[in-house]
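seq as requested:
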Amino acid sequence: MNMPEAGSSTTQRLFFALWPDQKTRGRMERVQHRFKHYRAHWTKPEKLHVTLFFLGKVEPAHVPSVVETAAGLRGSPFHLVLDCAMPIHRSGLLWLTPRQPPDELGTLVKELTTRLQPRGFEPEARRFRPHVTLARKLSGKPNCQEIDPIDWPIDSFALVESKTDNTGSHYVVRELWRFGQQFGGV
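C-alpha cells:
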C-alpha cells in the first residue's frame, strides 16, 4: 500500500495495466493450455494483463489525482511481442514475457513512475519486468519455452480496480486512455 489509509473499507485497490483485446487474450489462453497438464492456480482469461504500476489501496479522494496523472501522458503506439513462457520456479509462477521488451514500454513505466511518486505512490522495489501471469502455484518444473510470438499492438493503457467478493477477485477497467488522448471511462 502506497498511500496512507484512513478508511480501509472505502479504499479501492488500483493498478495501471496494459489490457489485451479479445484476440490477444485468446492467444494468451492457448499458451496456458500448453501447460494445463501441470497443476496450478490458472489465471482466469479475463484477468490476463501486464501490470505497469501497482498503486495499492487508494482513498476515493485520491482517485481523481491518479486519473489526472494518467490523462496527461503522451506516447506512441508500439508492439509488445510475447515470445517466452517462463516458469519462475522459486515462486511457482508461470509468466508470458518478451525476450526483448520494447523501449516504449520502459518509457511508459518510467513516465508513470515519475508522475506518481510526487503524489505519494512508490513503485515496487523490484525492477520492472513486463509479464503476463498465466499461473500461480505451478507444480513441476517446466523449462522456459519459446512460443509462437504473440504480437500485441499497444495503443492504450488502463486504470484497473481489483474487487473482491465471496466468489474471489474480479478486475474492472475504470479508465482507458489511448496514447495522448483519453477516450473515456469504461
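Residues 1-8, 182-186 have pLDDT under 50 and may be disordered.
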